[in-house]
Structure formats: structure tokens, C-alpha cells
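Reopening: Ribosomal protein uS12 methylthiotransferase RimO still failing for me.
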Amino acid sequence: MSQNPPLLRPDLARATVARDIARPGQPTIGMVSLGCPKALVDSERILTRLRAEGYAISPEYRGADAVIVNTCGFLDSAKAESLDAIGEALTENGRVIVTGCLGAEPEYITGAHPKVLAVTGPHQYEQVLDAVHAAVPPAPDPFIDLLPASEVRLTPRHYAYLKISEGCNHHCRFCIIPDMRGRLVSRPAHAVLREAERLVAGGVRELLVISQDTSAYGVDLRHATDRDHRAHITDLSRDLGGLGAWVRLHYVYPYPHVRDLVPLMADTVAQGAGVLPYLDIPFQHAHPDVLKRMARPAASARTLDEIAAWRAACPGITLRSTFIVGYPGETEAEFQYLLDWMDQAQLDRVGCFQYENVRGARANDLPDHVPDAVKQDRWNRFMEKAQAISAAKLAAKVGTRQQVIVDSVDADGATCRTMADAPEIDGNLFIDEGFEALTPGDIVTVTVDEASEYDLWGTQ
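Support: Ran it again with your exact input. Result attached.
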């Protein structure tokens, strides 16, 4: 974990450009994927469809017949980053198709970049394909390209994001995601499980479950059972946990039924595979009045009780969250309440945003916006608190034995993650001796020898 981890800021996330090798004369498409893992899954699905139709994926702008830019529109700064990416693609290639969250505002894009070939909204796969067909007609080789294509993945081979639903039913004042991606639409449980089985059979050792609101999975389906699988997060987690891979739950709201997931996590601690003892819960703040202004659940004391219950049922559980400081109207007393709450909650992994306006968000119209200098000061103080908590928690792990998954190996050592660490946004465990036989995707047990504020070092 680093301060304000980049992948918690969709506008600062590393752009992903897919790579492939084209045969002579094969039409090629480039892809730049910005933003959160949910957008990354959309990019993977688009590229998989294109590959099945005979397109190759170009590693360079100038080697592509057209470029798709999958944008982020979560924050105004994210929109600016997306416009910059579109501009770069136009400069380097000239034939650009835009999709993703910012595509929900086509006039905003075409006003800045009138030469784009087409604009589609988030998860509009068919429209993206239509735009590609119009710009670069497919020319498949019937002896090669129309064979069943493997899925295109933009993550390392040993882990994959598994999107279980789209959209959100919440109406938080600072967020426009429901306006861009719509209300909750859950995938059938049997379809999710079938995809997970295929991923695990292909070598995936860790499934990262994502959505806008993972806890609400299946609400729109009334938790119906279809083909012997019930559309409920507890049932789905139990099914996924039986596949033999690590299963990590992201974007979980603290509904009461979340406590039913914790026994599954306790079983994983004992067995080494299944639903990881890890909850990624976007608390956003702790003071009841701030939460009310955000239009979020406002019972922070009850949340502390829930945290205590989770830890009692699964002592090894890791809790990650994100928070917003400098929300309109936030007083010094309300911010201090948040710091005091952090002392009580003792969260393991924490990220923090400084509030910023987003065009179309209701929070823009709230009174008493906090000055930028005050927001920066509060962010600094919050991260200092979070860093101290993290350092103490990691220091307590020195001397313990931990299961880790290997992400990469080079001449200097192996970079790994414990069950407490999600890729990119949390910390790492480094092995710098006796690592030569390790390969990415290996799951091994190590002894923790050293700790810093965010990372660990260990030996087998």
C-alpha cells in the first residue's frame, strides 16, 4: 500500500495498452484502458470479441488501423486525463473510437475532440464493435482467425478480475456512477461461476470479485435460483470458494448479511484456499453528519460493532477502505471525529481522496466547500494516522508464517502478496534470498523477517 494508491484514483491509474502479434494483412486495433478494474474487464471483453472476429491487437499507436480509448469519468480530473489520452491517440494514430464512462457524455468528448470516429457509453460492447467494423472492416482468415479464440486478459496470467454485476442503486451525492452505468444489473450466478471455472482451468490462482456494490449482488434478481445456483453474494462466494483458487471480495458495503461471509473466510485461513479473509469496504467517512450529507448510511458506531464482530469470527481478517476528506461542510471537529474513529477501527489498508467536484454530482451544490489548502492538510494528517496504524499492524506480523502468491520474479528477488494484499493497491512481500525456483502464480509459505509502513520481507 502506498499513500493514495494510484489505482484508487481512476484518473491516475496506469493506462493499459493491449499487445498482440499480427499476421501480414491482418486488421489491427489498439486499446488504451483507463480507470478502475471494472473498466479493465470491459476492455478485455471488447478485445476478446475483436480477436474472435479476426482482428489483431497492436502494441503501438502507429501500428494500429484504429485505437479504442476506454475512458474514466469518475472525477473531473479523471475526465481531463481521459481527454488527454484521446488527444494523444489522435495525434499518434488519428483514428480513434471512444468508449467507457466518459462516453456517457458524448458532447463533452466531441466538443474537445471533434475528429473522433465514434463515442459509445460504458459496457456498450455491440456499439463498440459496430464502430470498429465501420472504421476497419474485418478481414478474417477462415483457416486461422475463426477458430475459437481464448479470452484476452490485460492482467497477469495468475489473477483475474471477475465482474459479477453492473450499475448501482445508491444515490451518494458525490458520485455519478449510477448516472453513467445505470441501476444494479446482476449477472446470473451460473454464468459467473462458469466464467470463474474457465479462468481457474486456464491457470488463474486468484479471482478478484468486483462490481459497483458487491454486497447487493442478486437484489435485482430477487436472489433467484437458476440452474442450481442462487444469486446471492453469500452463496456465490461459497461456490467460488470451492474452485481451489483465492477469492478476494472488493467493493463490499457493510450490510448485515456481510457477517455471513466471515465464516467462509475463517475456513480459508485454515485451508489455504477459498474466500480470502479480506473485505474492501468503502466507508468514505465516519461522522454521522458528514455521512448524511453524502447520503450514505450514518451509523458509524454500529459499523464499529460490526468490525468487532467480524474480527471475533475471523481474527485474521484484513479490512481495507477508502475515505473522502474535505467534503463540503466538513468541520474540523467532524474531521477529528474521523481520526478518532480510525484509532478505534484500526483498519489494515486505507486510501484517501481529497474531495473534488464532479460535473452532475449533487454534492456540488452543497454549501461551505472546504478550501484546497485545508483539504490538503487534512489529507496529510489522515494519511499520517493511517500509516502509523499500518506500520504497527505489519510489525506485529514479523516472525509469523504467511501464505503468499508470487506476482513477479527478477534477478533481485520475488515480489509477492499475502492474503491481506490486493494487487496494485496494497502492499507487497519481498523475498530476496532463495527465490530462484519461484515463478509467477506460485503460492508458498514464508516467514516474515522485516516490515515497513506498507511492505513486508520474508524467507521460505
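The chain is about 30% helix and 20% strand. If you still see a failure, please send the error message rather than a screenshot.
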